[in-house]
Specification:
Elements (H helix, E strand, L loop, with lengths): L10 E7 L4 E9 L2 E10 L7 H4 L4 H21 L3 E6 L1 H5 L3 H11 L5 E2 L2 H15 L5 E6 L4 E7 L2 E8 L3 H4 L8 H12 L11 E5 L1 H14 L10 E3 H13 L2 H7 L10 H15 L3 E4 L4 H7 L4 H4 L3 H10 L3 H14 L12 H13 L9 H13 L8 H13 L10 H7 L2 H21 L3 H4 L2 E6 L2 E6 L9 H13 L3 E6 L1
Parallel strand pairs: 1-4, 4-5, 6-9, 9-11, 13-14
Antiparallel strand pairs: 1-2, 2-3, 6-7, 7-8, 10-11, 12-13
């Protein structure tokens, strides 16, 4: 176990002993970026007997222990030293929860941290903020036995609250789903919430059951991007998909989304809770978060200096490879191209455009290992679906298009849906300009930090001016001049060079 801050480049594991599942996720830590390298889950059902007799399921406890023994062996074999085991509602509420914790400690060696409802809400909010630092609204984390709610804003999280509204807590012994009964029970419980209060805005949904509902929504709407993180649903879309989920058989759910069939028994309850939350809070939209409690556990262990990094920049650096040379060139390329866009009209916002250019600069050479004949066919989709944080679906498409245009002027013919449906014409044009700027800087300098710093770009009276030291004028080849002319043209400028 590691009691200090997480270190750059190490592996860290979170074990989440939940009411329904027991999961192990091993992450590669690259600054603020957390990249899963191993992800295993066992549906133990620890909390399935909690409502009936107040104790953990005996079969579930044995299944959980078997899973934890396997996880301990895997972690030992991989040499993972930073391990953070946590338990949530089932262990917290069960009469025999403390004895279960002691058994795990004695038989396996894991020192299980039993989270209070407030802790669970706070860590979920921390995780959401790791994937969306500008998040503002309410975070809801639906587990097997409980629902945690907490306010969130860029300034931090508020006080959390917990309700016994997980599918296992709502289900009856006979297994029959009664929408009227469940809806009334959830509505009555949420009436006591101090967090909801018909506040409007955004609701950030965390939890496996809600993610499964998100996958079904993606299938129903034929959404062009099947990435769950930051998938958005309006209130009307939430009500529609909730109604569909409640009325489908297990076989029908499987046809809609294969993974949803594994949660067929719990999804009607999860859909009803989401529907009632939307009504109680009068939220405008649901934003699904792939980041939650487990990521929050790790963020809690990061230094203030690490947390000062922007999550998207950190993720882009992690994907591109965090060598000193790679990081240095990407950071310099970001600042080097910046003068080209000082007077450009924002396509998202000035702040977001700058962050996206920074991420694009870090990813500017990600296609280098790919064969030139195949690169343009796959680079757009590769970036579009990359494990990125703090980015919307539209911004993903913009970043993917920018990296695509780093290698070619032509639009991404091999991924038209994500390009055309997610980006308007102004965003497409801006992505072309960013890609052209990246190509200019990379080709001019041979992707060398020292050489790139010998050139300066500026925009003066409608002219994109490239200044170069006299001793390096021979680097201004015909190819570089074409790159400069094209980059200038994407911004409605003409191009000139000046030798100092």
């Amino acid at each position: 176990m590691n009691g200090g801050f997480l270190r750059d480049g190490e592996d860290a594991a979170v074990i989440d002993v939940g009411s329904n599942s027991v999961r192990l996720v091993v992450y590669r830590i690259d600054g603020r970026a957390m990249t899963p390298t191993l992800n295993e889950k066992v549906m133990a059902g620890l909390g399935r007997d909690l409502q009936r007799n107040g104790t953990l399921s005996k079969d579930g406890a044995e299944a959980a222990l078997r899973a934890l023994r396997r996880y301990a062996t895997l972690l030992d074999a991989q040499g993972v030293k930073s391990v953070f085991p946590v338990a949530t509602a089932a262990v917290r509420e069960a009469k025999d929860g403390a004895a279960f914790v002691e058994r795990i400690k004695g038989e396996i060696g894991f020192d299980l941290r039993v989270l209070s409802g407030g802790d669970e809400a706070r860590l979920s909010a921390l995780g959401v903020s790791g994937g969306a630092p500008d998040a503002k609204g309410v975070v809801g984390d639906l587990g097997g036995a409980s629902l945690e709610l907490i306010q969130i804003s860029p300034d931090g999280a508020g006080e959390g609250e917990t309700f016994p509204l997980g599918p296992l807590a709502l289900a009856r012994a006979d297994g029959e789903f009664d929408y009227a009964r469940v809806s009334e029970q959830v509505t009555k419980a949420l009436a006591k919430s101090s967090v909801l209060g018909k506040r409007g805005g955004d609701f950030y949904a965390v939890g496996g059951a809600w993610r499964a509902i998100g996958r079904i929504d993606i299938a129903l709407r034929n959404h062009p991007l099947g990435v769950l993180h930051h998938h958005e649903m309006s209130r009307a879309e939430v009500l529609k998909v909730a109604d569909v989920v409640r009325k489908q058989s297990k076989r029908s759910l499987e046809r809609l989304e294969e993974a949803a069939a594994k949660r067929a028994e719990t999804l009607p309850y999860a859909a009803t809770v989401l529907e009632r939350v939307m009504q109680a809070g009068q939220f405008d939209r649901v934003v699904l978060s792939a980041f939650g409690l487990r990521e929050g556990v790790l963020i809690e262990r990061m230094s203030p200096e690490t947390l000062a990094e922007h999550p998207l920049i950190a993720a882009a650096e992690a994907i591109a490879g965090r060598t000193a040379r790679g990081r240095g060139f990407g950071k310099l390329l970001e600042s080097w191209i910046a003068p080209m866009f000082d007077r450009s009209k924002p396509v998202f916002s000035a702040k977001r455009d700058a962050v996206l250019r920074g991420a694009a600069a870090r990813l500017a050479d990600i296609g280098g290992p790919l064969h030139p004949d195949q690169r343009v066919e796959i680079i757009f989709d590769m970036v579009l679906r990359a494990p990125l944080a703090a980015i919307s679906h539209e911004e993903r498409a913009f970043l993917a298009a920018a990296i695509h245009h780093r290698y070619t002027k032509s639009p991404p013919r091999h991924a038209p849906a994500g390009y055309v449906r997610l980006l308007d014409e102004d965003q497409q044009a801006a992505a072309l300009a960013v890609g052209a700027a990246l190509r200019l800087g990379a080709d001019l300098s041979g992707r060398n930090e020292a050489l790139l710093s010998s050139f300066q770009l500026s925009v003066v009276d409608g002219v994109l001016l490239l200044r170069v030291k006299k001793g390096l004028a021979h680097l201004l080849t015909e190819t570089v001049q074409r790159r400069l002319d094209f980059a200038a043209g994407t911004l409605g400028l003409t191009a000139e060079t000046k030798i100092l």
